[in-house]
Amino acid sequence: MERSAKKPAKMFFALVGIFIIAVLLYLYTPFRMPCMLNTTTGIPCPGCGLTRATIHAINFEIVDAIAMNILFTPLALVFTAYFTLSAIDIFSRKLHLSRVSRLTNIITSKWGVRIIIALLSISWVYNLIRGI
Question: What is the CA radius of gyration of the chain?
Answer without folding.
Answer: 17
